[in-house]
Amino acid sequence: MSDRHVLVLAGGLTHEREVSLRSGSRLAESLRRQGVDVTLRDADASLLPWLVQHRPDAAVIALHGGRGENGAVHGVLEMAGVPFVGTAAHECRLAWDKPTAKTMMHRAGFLTPNWMTLAHNTFRDLGAGALIDSLAHHLGMPLMLKPYQGGSALGATKVTDAAEVPGALVQAFAYGDVVLVEQFVTGTEVSVTVIDTDSGPRALPAVEIVPDSGVFDYESRYTAGLTTYFTPARLSDESAAAAADLAIGAHRELGLRDVSRTDAIVDADGRVHFLEVNVSPGLTETSMLPMAVEAAGEDLGHLYSALIDRALAR
User: Of 44, 57, 86, 255, which has the most beta carbons under 10 Å away?
Assistant: First the structure.
């Protein structure tokens, strides 16, 4: 790999910029230890001219949120003819839109918490009070409210009473004009990374997530010490296998490529419920993908070097 020039994209103009910069820096250093010639840079107005001038052999997208996960930057790399690690642009949209991903997984026979999507103007047109009461009656309590697109649990809130819904809606609508309202399933929260190999997608050991607050929100994700992780997750062999099957199923059903991370809940009966999937998993010191890689006895730089080889071979 020493003769390869690889671009790592990090930063971007999203709410997750700082997380992305941390992910990109860690990945760049991991690849450099493998002897890879790495350029770490932002995705900004100078990107396309830079691609034309420098023609990197391949790229890795370490952008989170917005353009880094909705396929926009992926499409730019496709237009520029730069091979990259990650899902093709069109399929990124399926994973980025949480209700679409849930619908596809439900149709494929996987469990996912019951949900509704509601636009901001629906509350204005139909009356917020009556709609909230109907929502609580239809889905039951507790509920999880989150933006229908986005990552890092930004704008996500657990509510246990209808009186808490208005405040949770304000939080969610701060990140978009549509909110996903989902039944809250009590159980063990896990994250499963899937890596493409020559023999097909492979699930790495599941990471169990135990936030001190009881909810894996933005602060719990990126503040060291606020969440305890267990890798591999403390699951029965049957539940661990089911979680792996779910993550591989999401990777295949949504047409994902190279690497993905599926978030799920394992309930008291051992059933695994799909929550969402990420096409650009975090790589920070508190991110689950590096934990899974370490638990599998592998090296982050070596793993991504192999994914770069796959991208170059396409």
Answer: 86
